[in-house]
UniProtKB/TrEMBL annotation, chain A:
Species the sequence originates in: Marinobacter mobilis
CDD domains: TM_PBP2
Xref: Pfam families: BPD_transp_1, DUF3333
Gene3D superfamilies the record matches: MetI-like (1.10.3720.10)
Ranges annotated as spanning the membrane: 25-48, 203-232, 252-274, 280-302, 323-348, 396-417
Entry's localization field: Cell inner membrane; Cell membrane
Similarity comment: Belongs to the binding-protein-dependent transport system permease family. CysTW subfamily.
Protein name listed in UniProt: Phosphate transport system permease protein PstA
From TrEMBL, chain B:
Region (Disordered) location: 1-24
GO cellular component: membrane
Organism of derivation: Marinobacter mobilis
Chain segments annotated as coiled-coil in the UniProt record: none
InterPro entries assigned: AAA+_ATPase, ABC_transporter-like_ATP-bd, ABC_transporter-like_CS, P-loop_NTPase, PstB-like
Biological process, per Gene Ontology: phosphate ion transmembrane transport
PROSITE patterns found in the cross-reference section: ABC_TRANSPORTER_1, ABC_TRANSPORTER_2
Protein name: Phosphate ABC transporter ATP-binding protein, PhoT family
GO molecular function per UniProt: ATP binding; ATP hydrolysis activity; phosphate transmembrane transporter activity
Length: 425, 297
């Protein structure tokens, strides 16, 4: 009796200890998650807080009179002359009308500082499209200069330095109060390529470049990766050679991505003579980088198909190929797709290897094909983050948000596909 | 045959004394009581479907089947019994070359189906498996509809040219498997949603849909409850009219109920083959007797 009581006592003691251990372990887990979540919240808060103004543009809206004389045009109907007209002059004239106190050449030059250097060419495009507006008065909205942009958005923020003179600031304030200078949704950001002027810079070129590059990567790495995984898992004999290949694939997955960039530079550009900065080469390099990820995840997915299904098919007389195509592949597909999309997401966020193959060049035009010069979103962010203009700070953050949106939607797609294709057995 | 018997019975008499010794010693003698490649009873038949001689199976270095010779007659139900790890499943899987997929597995000896060598390198294993179907221990329906499960075999072998022919095959197979009335209204339902017993009968229907000549069953009822087991056993009795059935089972009652002949395997040796009632009432070999009386296994 005493023996059993003491034993119960021992068990109770140890139980107490076990429960304490369990509680401590749970606390560690919660703490870990809390740290991770805090980091995530801080990251998002910082990026969104800095970057949301990147989605706003600063514009001037004025009644502009297209006076041929002011624009140094003798014959406004002559297209050749139209091309060489002074399109900034009518804008300044319109601005002067709003600020009657401005007079003199110096003041006029200061006024010029309020208008984006691209505004004149935008207006020129407008006139070229419709020459009939020469001689008329139009209500036009055009971009304000970079400095006005910073002033309009961040005049209360000490971390920004205002480049406008006192006089210009006074004008800008007046115009802001009258609603002539205003902030609106930054459509330029989504319809332009890169630019030296932050107000005129956009991510469209980078988005298109990223999509083209991803298309090349996906079209090459998914079929190659899945075929390699199927061969290694289903057909290859188990010997030293396949062991060696397996070890090397695992090693490749851990190789720093910049090495793949060097490889791409050496092989695709120097050896094969492919052009620099083009999505095809970028896609090839990223394919090399994502292949190990796709092969490893596809092999895991194939391995997880229960052997009973293979046996069932074999027992009926399905050939090796039929077993793979009819049973193993459909069952492994969700896992393969998830792995591939994660690999693609990794590739989408990759910068280093692309720097080496020249996708870091300053490219203004939106790429129109796999062989036209392009840049990609992460490289664009890298470029803007290193630019001295203040306007690029918020645009880099805005571009990060665009990139994150892409990544999140890709991961959501992966989850959706997995749920959709997953079958129980 | 008779010399064979005597040689083994002498072995038995010699072992008589240690049998009575304490338990620790009692476990030992069985191993030495078998002579390599010798089988008591009636392992041979005149009208043999399978003619198997001196079959040896190796997994790498270790030998799993030791010189087994056996005939399996046309349209008979033969049960393989024996303790775990005795090689009965391994032997069964040699008969439709399911061991091929195991790299380290080697099969030696002569294995013939209707006089043709099973392991002839020119032999098409796909054709063999269409003739020798298999039902596995765990029900393993494909994660597809009931209809597609049964139709899969006929489809890949091109047994039906039209949809109506395929429908007929599916209905016929499900009827033979005694499943038609339960599933005829939900042929498009996923097979994985059925009960375990239904799934196993579906697997049997799937196997017989390609009209095999032989059906191998590897412990088909070990994952089923008694009611489902009874249904599958009934089914085996019906199928035995048109198919040769080889069944591996751990349940001696099951072997006694369904089979015509019973083969007792022990540590890779085929110890005894005899008519089922003889094996369970008057086994010739001491080891068989020990096994069926539950002394080990």
């Amino acid at each position: 009796m005493t023996n059993s009581t003491s034993q119960a006592e021992i068990v109770r003691q140890s139980l107490k200890r076990r429960y304490r251990k369990e509680r401590r372990f749970r606390a560690y887990g919660i703490a870990a998650i809390a740290v991770a979540l805090t980091a995530l919240v801080v990251l998002f808060a910082d990026i969104i807080g800095k970057g949301y103004t990147g989605f706003l543009k600063t514009t001037l809206t004025l009644e502009v009179t297209f006076d041929p004389e002011l624009m140094y045009l003798e014959d406004p109907t002559d297209p050749a002359q139209l091309r060489n007209g002074d399109y900034l002059a009518p804008l300044i004239a319109a601005l002067k009308k709003e600020l009657p106190e401005v007079s003199g050449r110096r003041a006029e030059r200061a006024l010029k500082g309020l208008i984006s250097s691209y505004a004149a060419s935008d207006v020129k495009d407008l006139v070229a499209a419709d020459p009939a507006i020469m001689g008329t008065t139009q209500r036009l909205t055009f971009l304000a200069s970079d400095d006005v942009d910073v002033f309009a958005k961040h005049r209360d923020d000490a971390s920004y330095s205002i480049k406008l003179t006192e006089q210009q600031q006074a004008w800008a304030l007046t115009l802001l109060e009258r609603g002539i200078i205003e902030n609106s949704f930054n459509d330029v950001f989504f319809s332009n390529g890169d630019s030296r002027d932050p107000g005129h810079a956009g991510v469209l070129g980078a988005i298109v470049g990223s999509l083209l590059t991803m298309a090349v990567t996906l079209l090459l790495s998914f079929p190659i990766g899945v075929s390699a995984a199927i061969y290694l898992e289903e057909f290859a004999p188990q010997n030293r050679l396949t062991d060696f290949i397996e070890v090397n694939i695992n090693n490749l997955a851990a190789v720093p991505s910049i090495i793949f960039g060097l490889l791409g530079l050496a092989v695709f550009i120097n050896l094969f003579g492919m052009p620099r900065s083009v999505p095809v080469v970028g896609g090839l390099v990223l394919m090399l980088m994502t292949l190990p990820t796709i092969i490893i995840s596809s092999r895991a997915a194939i391995k997880s198909v229960p052997p009973s299904i293979r046996e069932a098919a074999q027992g009926i007389g399905a050939s090796k190929m039929q077993v793979v195509l009819h049973h193993v592949l459909p069952l492994a597909m969700p896992g393969m797709l998830t792995g591939s999309i994660i690999g693609m997401a990794q590739a989408l966020g990759e910068t280093a290897p692309l720097l080496l193959i020249g996708m870091v060049a300053f490219i203004v035009d939106v790429p129109d094909g796999f062989f036209s010069s392009a840049t990609v979103l992460p490289v664009q962010i890298f470029l803007w983050a290193g630019s001295p203009e203040q306007g690029f700070i918020e645009r880099a953050s805005a571009a990060i948000m665009v990139l994150l949106a892409f990544l999140i939607s890709m991961n959501a797609l992966a989850i959706w596909l997995r749920k959709r294709l997953e079958r129980r057995w | 045959m008779s010399t064979l018997n005597t040689s083994i019975s002498t072995e038995q008499t010699q072992r008589e004394a240690p049998e009575l010794a304490p338990a620790a010693v009692q476990d030992k003698p069985e191993e030495t009581a078998i002579e390599y490649g010798q089988t008591v009873g009636t392992p041979f038949a005149d009208d043999a479907k399978f003619r198997l001689r001196d079959v040896e199976v190796y997994y790498g270095e270790s030998q799993a089947i030791k010189g087994v010779s056996l005939d399996i007659a046309r349209n008979e139900v033969i049960a393989f019994i024996g303790p775990s790890g005795c090689g009965k499943s391994t032997f069964l899987r040699c008969l439709n070359r399911m061991n091929d997929s195991i790299d380290i597995c080697r099969v030696k000896g002569s294995l013939e189906l209707d006089g043709q060598d099973l392991y002839d390198p020119r032999r098409d294993v796909v054709e063999l498996r269409a003739r020798v179907g298999m039902v596995f221990q765990k029900p393993n329906p494909f994660p597809k509809s009931i209809y597609d499960n049964v139709a899969y075999g006929p489809r890949i072998h091109g047994l039906a040219n039209r949809k109506s022919e395929l429908d007929d095959i599916v209905e016929d197979s499900l009827r033979k498997a005694g499943l038609w009335n339960e599933v005829k209204d939900r042929l498009d339902a996923p097979a994985t949603g059925m009960s375990g017993g239904q799934q196993q009968r579906l697997c049997i229907a799937r196997t017989i849909a390609v009209s095999p000549e032989v059906v191998l069953m590897d412990e088909p009822c070990s994952a089923l409850d008694p009611i489902a087991t009874a249904k599958v056993e009934e089914l085996i009795a019906e199928l035995s009219e048109s198919y040769t059935i080889i069944i591996v089972t751990h349940s001696m009652q099951q072997a006694a109920r369904v089979s015509h002949r019973t083969a007792y395997f022990h540590l890779g040796n085929l110890v005894e083959v005899n008519a089922t009632d003889k094996v369970f009432t008057a086994p010739e070999h001491k080891l068989t007797e020990s096994y069926i009386t539950g002394r080990f296994g």
